[in-house]
Amino acid sequence: MIENRPEYAVIECLLFVAGDPVPLIELARVLALSLPQTQELLAEMETAYRADGRGILPLVTDATAQLISNRDFAAQVEELLQPNREKTASQSLMETLSIVAYRQPVTRLEVESIRGVRSEYAIAQLQKMGLIDEVGRKEALGRPILYGTTESFLRKFRLHNLSELPDYARFAVPLAAEEEFSVV
Amino acid sequence: MTDALHITIEQFDGPLDLLLHLITRAELRIEEIALCEITGQYLELMRQTDAMDMEQASAFLSVAAQLLLIKSRALLPRPPALTEQEEDPAQALLRQLREYQVIKEAAAALQTAWEDAARAYTRLPEDIALPPQKLELEDTTLQALFAAYQSLLGKRQAQEETVQNIVRRVKPDAFTIRNRAAHILRCLADKKSVRFETLFSEDAPRMEIVVTFLAILEMLSRNELRLTQAAPFAPIFLRRSANAQTTDHAYMDETDDAYD
Question: Cys staple from A86: which of A94, A116, B16, B118, with CB 3.0 to 4.6 Å?
């Protein structure tokens, strides 16, 4: 039996009222806990809620927490409310997004060399959608912009962190790097 | 070619996507394909496509060139052995293809993950303003600081966008073609000709230079001025042309009235 702690109720209440993702630091402040304590509490709460098969679950990333509906009941939600199905993106956007997600940080040139086509538009589009953003500059000729995924990317995919991306271990390693290693 | 095999370049998300398709269609794995064998099919497809936008075409052409290079190397007597730095073009292209194939699979996996994730819903935020907060910097992280800074910027922007601030004073243009034309005529009033450079004040702002230049062009087109230059890069002189009559330059910019 999973322990149902009183703090869960407070957190659930706060996240319900907020709707938007709440910065963990803010939660910690209200709960009068330290940030690591809050993170631990949220992780436990999520496990407990999942185990209980609750209708709403906390979605916790490194920076924020938010309440989301349990996707096991998606069919019933759709039956009741007919929500607009969120459109996913075109193939060229998905390719670009997966390069950035699995290989970050990357430059536009690196994206283009993998895809074999220009990707300015795709990158600009993904940036506009808030899924990727500039994360720095590469210490190379021209100091090109490095791109990485955002907090809202994690939330869009309902992930806690990047290692939860599908088949992360397999897709995250560039082939070229493997070969270079074997030469050295 | 049967209908089932009928494909067009537009269906593909770039040349690598097309190559990958040709390889799969030949029921081969990337490791097994001799790229020469699909070069013909690739080129044939490019030939059939009569309209392509330039940006797309250049990517396809570049791969076509790589394929031809690979094929010509295979057909011709062996060139001298490659130096160590130089990678065999076939190997390079195959490696690129394998890399692309992995990413394509990743993209498909991501697509599924996205669709699945979209089945979990969130609520819209409640429209309740949070009370002002005390500044507490203990235990904070750089990320949290940055988030706070960003939200502050957002608030600031929202304030600035209120109606009062949208109303701005529009300054009249300091330089108009009309007043520059008048200036040119004044310079020419007691002289037969003036040097081009003397029309501009010292440290003339860019706008003054641009508008004066436009005024000269306008007056030239109206046959009020003549330009002479003895040789390329020699000083340029302006003269009034013999048949110049007009001194009223109101025709030059109608928008000027607004500021009069």
Answer: B118
DSSP A157-170: TT-SSGGGSTTHHH
Nearest CB to A91; choose among B13, B63, B122: B13
Residue type, B239: R
Bridge-based pairing of strands A22-23 and A64-69 is antiparallel
Share of chain B above pLDDT 90, in %: 2
The reply to whether A54 touches chain B by the CB within 8 Å rule is: no
What letter does residue A47 receive in the DSSP assignment?
H
> Cα(B172)–Cα(B256) distance, rounded to whole angstroms?
9
CA-to-CA separations, B14 to A166, B9, B91, B187, B198, in angstroms, rounded = 24, 8, 19, 62, 57
Q: Which residues pair with B184 in a beta bridge?
A: none
Rounded CA-CA distance B55/A117 in Å is 9
Cβ pair A99, A114 in contact under 8 A: yes
Residues of chain B scoring pLDDT < 50 = 1-4, 254, 256-260
The helix-helix angle for B35-48 and B54-75 (nearest 10°) equals: 150
Cα–Cα distance, A168 to B51 (Å, whole number): 39
Distance (Å, rounded) from C-alpha B103 to C-alpha B14? Answer: 13
**Complex confidence, ipTM:** 0.78
pLDDT of A95 higher than 90? yes
DSSP labels for A99-167?
A: HHHHH-SEEHHHHHHHHSS--HHHHHHHHHTTSEEEEEE-SSTT-PEEEEE-HHHHHHTT-SSGGGSTT
Structure tokens at A136: 């720095």
Tell me if B30 sits within 8 A of B94, measured CB to CB. yes
Q: Do A175 and B98 touch (CB under 8 A)?
A: yes
Measured between alpha carbons, how far is A127 from B31 in angstroms, rounded to an integer?
36
Burial of B234 (0-12, 13-18, 19+ CB in 10 A): exposed
- Does the predicted TM-score (pTM) go above 0.90? no
Residue B120 tokens read as: 């979990």
Residue B11: DSSP 8-state? G
Asked whether the beta carbons of residue A71 and residue B113 sit closer than 8 angstroms, the reply is: no
> How far does Cα A14 stand from its chain's mean position?
21
Least Cα separation, residue A145 to chain B (angstroms): 19
B207 token code pair: 């706008």
